[in-house]
Amino acid sequence: MTKKIDAVGFTLDQKQSDLVETKLKRIGYADDLIVDLIMKIKHDKAYSFDTTVNFKWGLQAHVSSDDYDFAAALNKTMDLLDNKVKKEKDKVQEPK
Description:
Largest sheet: 4 strands, mixed
Strand content: 35-45%
Number of strands: 4
Strand order of the largest sheet: 1-2-3-4
Shape: elongated
Structural class: alpha+beta
């Protein structure tokens, strides 16, 4: 899985970058199913996460969330992303 994390309008400090990397390990079980993950983090008054995941079979999943707290916004995004990835993984692995 290729990861691309972009901060828009601000610079990610080391602590935030480490937190993102740690949280992305949560979907590590799907590394072989995901081609790439693109995460854009914007910060105006609140942190806004827009994440797109491209699966090997051509499907693209998109999740987004926002919160005034960086960690809370990241947790919301990871909850949504984890559910989306699990659903897609289950669909692909269902016997036909």
